[in-house]
Design a protein that fits this description.
By secondary structure, the chain is an all-alpha fold. The protein is built from 18 helices and no strands.
């Protein structure tokens, strides 16, 4: 009597399915583990330098306004040069681009450390170095983002972005804490030197990174396979972005949310210290809860597999409605209860939007699309606070939160409604016998058309 065939083993399959939705699934890949470790070191060094730089500007000038000027000078290149930086990322080999840009950032940090150690630093030199750093960052930012995604399969990209958000938060905490210790024991120049070493550490790790099976092929390889064309310029990235409805919709959702719903450092600060009669300590508690919610949201967002514009929009609308309720909070305790889910929803929405932005364009256009996005984001960051400030002057903190939340939710709801009520296309199908298809066939075709539209979003 022959033995019965062994049954299929469902247990490993189920474990794989569970693992595939884990927020940490991108860390299964060795390259991503090394990249995350390098990013943590780099983020810690960057936040150490940013913290020390603000103190250095205050020491040199004694002016808080000058601190803001130095930060603006470093951010300004993103508005004007990001499009060129994105084009460079598409044209050059990714790993080489990251290694060179990190080495250049390290050289700038070492130069600053040397000038500080020799007491030859002044405001002019500091602004020039900040501008150079900002220009290099227009290439380094999209190159680093896309390199991390190139290391994992497409279904693990949301996990990689979520892990990156956690690494960023952890690096910020570590760098801010280390800044005070480093300056206290070793001096200001040591903080810049430490940041320079962190850049060099990343540059030394990059050559050893290997993409996992199923990861995207590096765009530079694809570009080499096709002769360079004159039209492969910034304009091509702009054209693709403008003609891609889902990216335009994503930009609209993110833009209106950034202006009227993300500046909690301003709106909640006024609400807590004003109508709720709290102080600096109370706002510190609110800020801590926001940070915790952001971390939780990054973990939840990393569980996403195929985020869509609809997902981003619904999450943004939910956060806006929570903001409306928060604006009506009768006490600090009620506000604290609402702040946590607000931060969670915002963080999940950000992770979904970032994953969509970095995976939707063709591989050879992703750098330029990120360059377009960086320029748009700089406009939001520069124009948002003044607009929100005017709204607060007119309606107060509560009115700004309520009106801003309703504006966000209403705009997103109107967009979804318009999309669902789009004029259907009349389709005539020819049957095999030469006649026209009946109502059932037409209904099936329309249903499939709606499904296709839903998938496209």
């Amino acid at each position: 009597m022959s033995a019965a065939p062994a049954p299929a083993l469902p247990t490993p399959v189920s474990r794989t399915a569970v693992a595939s939705r884990s927020p940490w699934r991108s860390l299964r890949h060795r390259g991503m583990r090394w990249w995350s470790a390098a990013n943590f070191v780099s983020n810690a060094g960057t936040w150490m330098q940013l913290t020390v730089q603000n103190l250095l500007v205050l020491h040199i000038t004694g002016s808080a306004a000058a601190t803001g000027v130095s930060m603006s000078v470093q951010a300004a290149p993103a508005l004007f040069v990001s499009l060129l930086g994105g084009a460079a990322v598409d044209r050059w080999p990714r790993k080489l681009t990251v290694a060179v840009s990190q080495a250049l950032l390290g050289a700038v940090a070492f130069t600053t450390a040397l000038l500080v150690a020799l007491d030859r630093i002044d405001m002019t030199a500091l602004l020039v170095l900040a501008a150079v750093t900002g220009i290099i960052a227009t290439v380094d930012g999209p190159a680093c983002a896309l390199l991390g995604n190139d290391l994992v399969p497409v279904e693990d990209v949301p996990s990689a972005i979520g892990v990156g958000a956690l690494v960023h938060s952890a690096g910020r905490l570590a760098g801010t804490a280390l800044a005070g210790v480093t300056v206290g024991f070793l001096g200001t120049s040591a903080a810049y030197a430490a940041n320079a070493l962190s850049f060099l550490f990343v540059a030394s790790v990059v050559p050893f990174l290997r993409p996992a099976r199923g990861a995207f092929q590096e765009p530079s390889t694809e570009v080499r396979a096709v002769p360079a064309r004159p039209e492969m310029t910034v304009r091509e990235g702009l054209t693709f972005f403008v003609r891609r409805p889902r990216l335009v919709a994503l930009a609209g959702i993110t833009g209106i949310s950034s202006v009227f719903g993300r500046n909690y450092g301003l709106t909640l600060a006024v609400l807590v210290t004003g109508p709720l009669a709290g102080g600096a300590r109370a706002f510190g508690t609110v800020s801590t809860v926001l940070a915790v919610g952001g971390i939780l949201g990054a973990v939840l967002g990393a569980r996403l597999r195929k985020p869509s514009v609809r997902t981003v929009g619904l999450l943004a609308a939910a956060g806006a409605l929570l903001q409306v309720v928060a604006g009506l909070s009768p006490s600090l305790a009620v506000l604290l209860v609402l702040v946590l889910p607000m931060a969670v929803v915002e963080s999940v929405s950000d992770t979904a939007g970032t994953a969509l932005l970095q995976t939707d364009p063709p591989a050879h256009l992703r750098g330029r699309v990120l360059g377009v996005w960086s320029s748009i984001g700089t406009v939001w960051s520069l124009g948002g606070p003044p607009l929100l400030g005017l709204l607060m002057e007119w309606a107060g903190a509560r009115g700004a939160l309520v009106a801003g939340g309703l504006l966000i939710a209403g705009s997103i709801g109107a967009g979804l409604l318009v999309r669902r009520r789009a004029v259907p296309v009349t389709v005539t199908l020819t049957a095999k016998d030469g006649g026209t298809a009946g109502p059932e066939a037409l209904g099936t075709a329309a249903c499939r058309s709606r499904e296709a539209l839903g998938t496209a979003a």
